[in-house]
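Changelog-adjacent note: as of this version, every example in the card shows the full chain rather than a window. The one below runs 265 residues end to end.
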Amino acid sequence: MKTPLAKSKVFQKICRDAAVAAGRFSMLAEGDRVLVGVSGGEDSLTLMHVLTELQRRSPFHFDVIGATVDLQFGTFKMDILCDYAAQNNWRLETVSLDGYSLMKEKGAEDRPCAMCSRLRRGKLHGLADQLNCNKIALGQQLDDLCVSLLLAMFRGGGLKTMGANVPADAATKRLIRPLCLVTKARIHEAALIADYPKIKSCPYEEKLRDDGDRFYLEQLLNTLDARFKDVRSAMLHAMGDVRLAHLLDTRYWHAGDADPDEGKL
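Full-length structure tokens:
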């Protein structure tokens, strides 16, 4: 790791928050083999730095293996990413597939993110099986969790977000998100200190900025923060304090039963 990043206060704070998240949500344990999705963006590069630092500090042993899925869009700088991984002594496994052809075949070019995510996730799961990894670490951070919560609500998809530690593939492995307590702004601050190489470039980036729902909600978070102080922290607290009796899901409502919220309003 570059010395300026390793010694910076912002990176040390990110590591502390990731350690807190790992403990709170039981993300890491002795003997784990963790496959880390490395897309080349700020979040995933920071995650790889954080997990290798936590590995160094941990009182128990776990393995960290980077994994990159190249969808061959022609804008992704795989050689630069591999060089960066080598400079940092990371083990990086790579796998490729023809993303453009699959997007066209499935008619997903107007809404590419969901399809792209499924393609990458499928390859990561396959690679995890090959490498005998029991956990896959993804780089989504607190802003992503907040946006996912809002997106699910506005699309009528239920009260849900990206879980910190969730079962996958019939519970044969777990998906973990160690940066779930860290804001996008702090990761960007760390990225500026680290001076990450320019690796990731999405060919749909301009389109997503113009009319993508996620980008719209990311900007909305900033607007909300101007009105509601520390709105991301407030949403984080709310996501961890569900009041079942005060929602409308009849699976959790039975007349005469004890109050599942123990009197909380």
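Structural remarks: The mean pLDDT is 90.
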